[in-house]
Amino acid sequence: xxxxxxxxxxxxxxxxxxxxxxxxxxxxxxxxxxxxxxxxxxxxxxxxxxxxxxxxxxxxxxxxxxxxxxxxxxxxxxxxxxxxxxxxxxxxxxxxxxxxxxxxxxxxxxxxxxxxxxxxxxxxxxxxxxxxxxxxxxxxxxxxxxxxxxxxxxx
Length: 155
What we know:
Layout: H1 4-15, H2 20-27, H3 31-38, H4 45-55, H5 59-64, H6 67-70, H7 74-90, E1 96-103, E2 109-116, E3 125-130, E4 133-138, E5 144-145
Antiparallel strand pairs: 1-2, 3-4, 4-5
Helix pairs in contact: 2-3
């Protein structure tokens, strides 16, 4: 039986859409070593750090399968989507959106909301908190969006 660590690494590779050889090349690990790792051989600390650096996963996720370390919880995802929809609704028809599915760093397919910034047409936003209130902020032009329930307002 393959150790859970090795199984998670294989699942990560599959979620990223790589063949074993392609993933090994992406990581800079000899393909024969990666295939052995997926089949249960121990992975070195240096190789673990390479996987973390190139894939955005955590040590907790690799060694313990901690779902919280692999991405947001389903409740966090729902809250973030609700926040985004609320902020967009306050802006009326000024913003284009689309419901999409994305693969998080743990390899799970999760719902997401694609938002296009009306100012610069960028579609990458960050969520940040001001006090107890959260905002969406465009990562390109810093345009900020919220539901208008705080002093920063709806835009």
